[in-house]
Amino acid sequence: MNEIVCSKEEIKEICQRIGKELTNKFKDNAIPPLFIGVLKGSLPFMMDLIKEVNCDIELDFVQYSSYIKTKSSGVVVLKKDIEKDITNRDVVVIEDIIDTGRTLDKFHNYLLSRSPKSITTVVLLDKKSKREVETPVDYVGKEIEDKFVVGYGLDYQEYLRNIDHVFVIDEETLQRIDKESK
Q: Among residues 48, 90, 96, 99, which one is catalytic?
């Protein structure tokens, strides 16, 4: 049986907790904050989180890639840029997981170069033990151990994103997906 790292119930509580904090932070804004989801993994988290934010917001998306199978390649590549102008806007970055910190650091620096009013970073899961680059993270759903996890947006070879919780993938499932994805 697969080890559950973050249950459906835990995810709901995390979204409610962080959503309330984001509401309090931005409820009096004249210009709605821009929530930017880091595709593809953040999508389920972002969609559940914004349901708990009780103020006006706008959405955009960015896509970076750095993984090859279960390992970070060390090279962060921009695949889809944001479309909105963020000059003098409050920006909220939504990410599924932070481990080495390379992707969020690259994106954070990129956003800074475009002159936002502020950048708030929200991650569902944090693998602090894997951190190679320190980058600001304002809200963390849950800190986890250094294990390869999937589900709730997190994938292996694009599989398992649609599971409603996060779990450690077992070797048998890895081998099955490797065979199917060839």
A: 99
